[in-house]
Design goal:
It is a single chain. The chain is built from 28 helices and twelve strands. By secondary structure, it is α/β, with parallel strands linked by helices. The strands form two sheets. It has an eight-stranded mixed β-sheet with strand order 7-6-5-8-9-11-10-12, with helices on both faces. A four-stranded antiparallel β-sheet has the order 1-2-3-4. The longest helix is centred in the N-terminal third of the chain and has 34 residues. The two termini are 42 Å apart.
């Protein structure tokens, strides 16, 4: 093997492996925390990763004189430490007693969050340490080595998704230790043989560490497993979720309160098995032998409302889960039921382990099970027509009422989604959506507002004749009819509510005395809110209401975000008094993460860099900070924005994260490599390099603005495609943008490396510090201002980088 080939194998291949390990570990941690806590911690993990990357740049900058001439030795040490840290830090993280629910009431949880943050940042620190030292070792071709790092990262993002089809997320750190150890072996092969003794350390850990995910005690699966006689009867794994089926005599769930159900005459509820998705939101599978008589109770919940005014409807159930809503449709004499389920684990269990128990429900001639997300399915079937579209209760009552979904993007409840549902109804068809009710009221109020907005967008001039809203103490069902409700239908709704002991909150022609009759509220806020939303004063109502209840849209799809800053003192006071339902816990976690990222980023990155740079000209420091800081914020803003946008198109958060990360990294790496080859022709033509950066930033802005206009149409075009087709379309759309995004950062590093090498680690650290804050700040901006603003801000940051690049090349 030639010396050039040996150098390639001992540096570029390990950097490719380390880049892949870092990203795969990041995605695995997102899945771990989706199970352990809730999915909004995905953004915290991105911030954690960037903190580790930033801190390593700082460390290399501070230790530059000690590292000089010994970069390969420290690179070997870092790669060995990385192979050990993957398992060690994952193991340690599962021992930290952090819980989202206690953030406000227990100050110690802030410390637990900080410990968790710093512990999980260590592997990313070490991965970045190796990459930074690699850049110093290949100083003349920064873009080429950066491209290998990016390519490895992209391959890691793709590979870990495939891995998650086969193993649980907790096994991924164990498996990633193998390529990390291989990277160390390749690097150490160029050093003294005694370095290879270090292989014993990670290999020993592989034999000793096997740690399951520590589940929050507040998640549904934790509750279920504490029931007498609870037993896990089946479990299935995919990148989308970990689905657990639990049997216990005490598991008896209904889709809301049973109002007026004569339990003694009609018998007990059927035996049930609970299904828990990522340990949280639950569904149940009922024992079914073909007879629908045991399911008479399904006529005594608010979700039965639409069946009182339809005759043998053709039904679409969005989110069929264990099949309760399907059984309800069959019980109410539906002609046929199309059941949409987004999680592949459900049909897998229902057709195998639970087949006999469920009576082969999803194999009946009058039931069609479709593995698809609701909007994607309907977008791809313009000819579809249903008499009833029923959006099932898709989360558990405890999680929904506690506000843990505050940051969850839910494209099923946006105004655009409801417009789509209406377009797929027959002329007299009904849309029915049931939600858990919270105290104080907010979910149902926001849903009613969104349905009114959608009705008006659909050309319904007077929505007051098309809506009805019925509630129990814990659920509310709102129906929206494509045609005005007929008098006989209004009469049927009144009779249904009276006979079942349900309260009318809105109905055409309703009077105040018709409301608040059974489940008595101090103020019938649901009725008052419905009237306000249907009036000319709806803007004032939205402005003055204690919670954020403006209609959800695709640009701001956070349906469960109700937090308002001006109500914060009231929420904190309520939380301290034990009224946890006032607090939007997901939002609290985001705020804590943003503040923590800012503090840790300043203490571990910015402050040491300021101290390190005391001997460097202020103008140089300012130019580097402005350029690389802007790039860090801009890159993360676009990355987070596209992750959230692709959640609608790809349906699954892990697909969106993996596709975006893989596309951003691989195509940015290709852009970096192309720029390096172009610049390698003549490294003295600095003006050409500056022009390249400006062309790249101009292209980013132009392509991005085109996306804002054209992307919705492109996604509608591919909505009905299979998963593979939608993933390929997403990659094709992202590729041009990501190619140009890969140019400014390595080009700037090369300019800096040629002129002032000592500033390269400083630039790396500052870029990482901006990325740390940018990962969570982008989410905060998206929640309040929408994705469009996030994208536009990122374009502004790229433009500012184009204007400041000259300062680092002067």
């Amino acid at each position: 093997m030639s010396s050039r080939s040996r150098a390639f194998v001992r540096l570029h291949v390990p950097i490719l492996l380390i880049g892949g390990v870092g990203i795969a570990f990041e995605i695995a941690l997102m899945r771990v925390f989706s199970i352990a806590q809730w999915h909004h911690f995905a953004y915290m993990i991105i911030s954690v990763a960037m903190l580790g990357f930033a801190a390593s740049g700082t460390a290399v900058a501070l230790l530059r004189y000690r590292l000089a001439g010994r970069e390969r030795v420290f690179l070997a040490a870092g790669s060995l430490a990385l192979s050990i840290s993957l398992l060690a830090c994952y193991y340690a993280s599962q021992k930290v007693p952090f819980d989202t629910f206690r953030l406000v009431t227990e100050p110690v949880q802030i410390r637990h969050l900080a410990v968790l943050y710093l512990t999980l940042a260590i592997p990313f620190f070490l991965a970045s340490w190796c990459i930074t030292l690699g850049l110093l070792l290949d100083r003349g071709r920064v873009g080429r080595l950066y491209a290998f790092n990016m390519a490895g990262s992209g391959l890691g993002a793709v590979g870990v998704v495939g891995l998650l089809f086969l193993v649980q997320p907790s096994a991924v750190p164990w498996l990633l230790t193998i390529p990390a150890t291989l990277a160390f072996a390749l690097i150490a092969s160029g050093l003294h043989r005694r370095w290879l003794l270090g292989l014993a350390l990670p290999l020993t850990l592989l034999l000793l560490v096997d740690e399951p995910v520590r589940l929050s005690e507040y998640k549904g699966l934790s509750y279920a497993l504490r029931l007498p006689g609870a037993e896990i009867v089946a479990e299935t794994q995919s990148p989308i979720s970990q689905l657990t089926a639990v049997s216990a005599a005490a598991i008896r769930e209904t889709p809301g309160q049973l109002s007026g159900y004569p339990m003694g005459e009609l018998g007990e509820l059927p035996e049930q098995i609970g299904l828990y998705f990522d340990g949280g939101s639950g569904s149940v599978v009922s024992r079914f032998d073909g007879s629908l008589e045991p399911f008479a109770f399904l006529d005594y919940v608010t979700g039965a409302l639409p069946y009182q005014i339809t005759n043998r409807p053709e039904v679409l159930v969005v989110g069929s889960g264990g099949g309760v809503e399907v059984l309800s449709a069959l019980r109410h004499d539906a002609r046929g039921v199309t059941a949409l389920e987004v999680d592949p684990g459900v049909p897998r269990l229902m057709r195998s382990v639970l087949r006999e128990f469920s009576g082969a429900l999803y194999e009946r001639d009058d039931v069609t099970l479709v593995l698809a997300e609701g909007r994607g399915y309907l977008e791809g079937r313009a000819e579809a027509e249903f008499d009833l579209i029923q959006v099932a209760l898709l989360d558990s009552f405890s999680a929904a009422s506690a506000g843990v979904y505050a940051l969850a993007e839910s494209y099923l409840y946006t105004a655009e989604a409801i417009v789509l549902y209406l377009s797929r109804l027959s002329p007299d068809g009904i849309l029915s959506i049931t939600r858990w009710l919270k105290t104080p009221p907010r979910d149902a109020v926001k849903l009613f507002a969104t349905m009114v907005e959608a009705a008006e967008r659909s050309g319904i001039d007077d929505p007051t004749r098309h809506l009805a809203f019925v509630r129990s103490w814990n659920t509310g069902t709102i129906i929206l009819s494509r045609s005005p409700l007929a008098d006989r239908q209004i009469h049927a709704i009144r009779a249904f509510a009276d006979e079942r002991g349900l309260d009318l909150s809105y109905l055409p022609g309703i009077e105040p005395e018709d409301t608040n009759r059974f489940t008595i509220l101090e103020d019938e806020i649901y009725h008052q809110a419905a009237l306000a939303v249907l009036s000319d004063e709806r803007r004032e109502f939205y402005r003055d209401y204690a919670f954020h209840v403006r209609p959800a849209t695709d640009d701001r799809p956070h349906f469960f975000r109700f937090f308002r800053w001006r109500s914060l003192p009231r929420f904190l006071e309520a939380a301290r008094g034990g009224w946890f339902n006032f607090v939007e816990w997901g939002y609290v976690a985001l705020l804590a993460t943003v503040l923590q990222a800012a503090v840790l980023g300043f203490l571990l990155v910015v402050l040491p860099l300021i101290l390190f740079a005391r001997g460097i000209d202020l103008g140089e420091r300012t130019g580097v900070a402005l350029y690389f800081g802007a790039l860090g914020f801009a890159f993360m803003f676009l990355e987070i924005a596209f992750i959230q946008r692709l959640m609608l198109f790809l349906a699954y958060p892990v697909y969106a994260v993996s596709v975006v990360l893989a596309s951003f990294l691989i195509f940015a790496g290709i852009g970096s490599y192309a720029a390096d080859r172009w610049m390698a022709r003549d490294r003295e033509r600095r003006a050409e390099w500056l022009r390249l950066v400006r062309i790249a930033t101009l292209a980013i802005g132009a392509i991005g603005l085109a996306y804002l206009v054209l992307l919705p149409a492109a996604f509608r075009l591919g909505a009905g495609w299979p998963d593979a087709g939608r993933i390929l379309l997403s990659v094709a759309v992202l590729a041009p943008l990501c190619f140009f995004m890969g140019i400014p950062f390595p080009a700037g590093l090369q300019l800096l490396s040629d002129r002032s090498p000592k500033l390269v680690p400083w630039a790396w650290g500052l870029n990482g510090a901006a990325s740390v804050l940018g990962a969570t700040l982008a989410t905060l901006v998206a929640v309040h201002l929408g994705f469009r603003v996030v994208v536009l801000v990122s374009f502004g940051l790229y433009a500012s980088a184009a204007f400041t690049v000259r300062r680092i090349a002067a």
